[in-house]
Amino acid sequence: MTRDRSTEEAKKRLRREMTARRDALSAEYRGLADRSIREKLLSSPAYRRAGSVFLYVSMPGEPDTRAILERALKDGKRVYVPKCVSHGIMRAVRIASLAELKPGAYGIPEPEEEGETASPGALDLILVPCVAASLKGDRLGHGAGFYDRFLAQAPENAVCLCYKALLRDDIPVSPLDVPLPLVITD
């Protein structure tokens, strides 16, 4: 299946607009929003019942996942993070500590070594980043397709974390985009 050129252009335009909006968010807003998102996630049934959790390692501008990663490790969950292994392909690699993370592909912290891995279907909860999202589960990613390829195998366990200021009802979607069952926002 190929991507529609007009949809891809619309995504690029919206990605630029939402990145500018994201970059304009105040540090105060982000701090309050990060705490709200973290509390909602950690108190959710999806998190409480999950034995294995796949968490993205947040980059500047994304809802902060470091405290969530630390809490999941403390709670005894099997914690997996993404490791990019080739263009558009990532694996879920288990970590025991944030100290295992070093800058990898695209400057994103990831495990240096590829130890224990899990398939998407074996993960109880998969946290997904976005540039923007809709409450109905449409997600605008960064454009490389890593998460859509990964989620195609187990979309039912995915949760997108998104700042309320970056919610949109008009996210352009293509047939390759995987809709998410839950979006948690501040």
What would your notes on this structure say?
There is one protein chain. The chain has about 190 residues and is an alpha/beta fold. It has one domain (about 5-185): Rossmann fold, CATH 3.40.50.10420. Helices cover about 30% and strands about 25% of the residues. The protein has helices spanning about 5-25, 25-40, 45-50, 65-75, 145-150; strands at about 50-55, 80-85, 90-95, 100-105, 110, 115-120, 125-130, 130-135, 140, 160, 180-185. Strand 8 and strand 9 (about 140) form a beta hairpin. The relative contact order is 0.19.
CATH class: Alpha Beta
Give the strand order of the largest sheet, numbering strands 1, 2, ... along the chain: 6-3-2-1-7-10-11
Number of domains: 1
The CATH superfamily appears as NagB/RpiA/CoA transferase-like
Which value, in Å, is the CA radius of gyration?
16 Å
Number of helices: 5
